[in-house]
Design a protein that fits this description.
307 residues; 11 helices; 26% strand; homodimer; 14 strands; nine-stranded mixed beta sheet; alpha/beta; five-stranded mixed beta sheet
Chain lengths: 307, 307
Amino acid sequence: MSLVVVGSMAFDAIETPFGKSDKIIGGAGTYIAWSASNFTKPIKQISVVGGDFPQEELNALSARGVDLEAVQIKKDEKTFFWSGRYHMDMNTRDTLETQLNVLESFTPVVPDSYQDCEFLMLGNLVPAVQKSVILQMKKRPKLIVMDTMNFWMEIALADLKDVLTMVDVLLVNDSEARELSHEFSLVKAANKILTMGPKYLIIKKGEHGALLFHENQVFFAPALPLEDVFDPTGAGDTFAGGFIGHLAKTKDISFENMKTAIIMGSAMASFCVEKFGLQRLTEITRTDIDKRLDEFVELVNFDIDLV
Amino acid sequence: MSLVVVGSMAFDAIETPFGKSDKIIGGAGTYIAWSASNFTKPIKQISVVGGDFPQEELNALSARGVDLEAVQIKKDEKTFFWSGRYHMDMNTRDTLETQLNVLESFTPVVPDSYQDCEFLMLGNLVPAVQKSVILQMKKRPKLIVMDTMNFWMEIALADLKDVLTMVDVLLVNDSEARELSHEFSLVKAANKILTMGPKYLIIKKGEHGALLFHENQVFFAPALPLEDVFDPTGAGDTFAGGFIGHLAKTKDISFENMKTAIIMGSAMASFCVEKFGLQRLTEITRTDIDKRLDEFVELVNFDIDLV
């Protein structure tokens, strides 16, 4: 039984108020795999890259227990490229350039060896591509988690709504939750989105933490207050990787365990933003993660018995 | 031993995207007293009103254990008036009109019967007025908590910095923390402000909760996700009232108990925003407060043993 991750593997060029990166490795699928591989192995990756994607990056993922059988390498084409510039608040950004390249004609193929999929993480991609992966699964996974973005709400809403009926958990940020629901109040937005298919909704609020909604229950996980947020790129994907990684490790999809999984995701995201790109995720150890989890406990722990 | 509260008592006229109020009772001191009186009695109030301030409002406060000996009533003058309009996000607002009236020449006088002050809450006011109250205290209170606002940073910064050296806890919102420290990162802002005098700093982030900083420690209290935020007026003062009220009740000013006090403040603020003005604060019972505290525990409680 395994975790299958679908998502882009890409080159990014990033500008923040604090610095500028060269063309570095990025992509939702890459961040998810790096993050989730701290919790569970193997991770069965579905993606596509061009001939320009460095072999050593693929090797590094293999070494972490990421199975690349369904990562298509299109030798004569170029890898997906995105460049963006963050505003001072680090919560908003402008896209400077997008070159779809290999993503333009991406047709994922789920190999037989991936059919033992128990946990399926659909990283942000064209909704039709996400759907195609679900449809190729001969046995419905125990849990399907889906990320998406405002862009698909604007150009492929019908497809997006179709996929929503097939998944268990939806991950969006606050502005996307508002856009999808046409509600400003996040509680009202959540109530509406929970009628569209997903039984669980996670609303990510960047530096303001994340909310988990399920039926009439709500859980809040803070973001760790950091001296410097150096580069938020991939933080949402890293969060998703920690979330699904913990669930796949524990094989427990109760609401209680999802709370813990969200804290894992928040801890992983707090590392991601400390350096450019994937850098920090490649450095941290299990000891670093445990130490950060302790900081989360300290951050929110209070005693109400004094009342 | 008692809690002394200094703050404006006022008329407000409020517009939000969801409605518009008549001229209703407001003022930082009023909100603080209503909120804190759920926790401790007596509250010794210092303020000033005009002859137009309704006697029944004063009676209502008295009935809740608020001592009005140092509330000056200037029969021939008018009460402070503020009107404002909130934006859709309910976190930002435009001031439409301010009539200082009695506040223009407010000179607080601390009576002998207030000299047993153990907890002093300085609501948002001219820094020089806040200072004058501190200086009139013959014995330094056990804890001095101060609220302020960006306006004083712009027109009375030297006075404000002077008062900062005399207090234990400062309450500001996120944009005020940034303005006072010239730092964008709230962690850096906090570190700088903690060198200006206060040993504890609370940064209020509205719907995004509140942070408590002390030495190298940090605690985060969420705001309760609400279906509707009807009117945020007075939420910060209500928060302050719950915070100081709990501390005055328990007489414990440890960091641990301040965490609990911030949860109390957050719970009180979550009621305040549910209706226009003071309305909701006049309705709630101790049972309502206890129920809401349970919701806060539910909201942030997670189990890390599963890791």
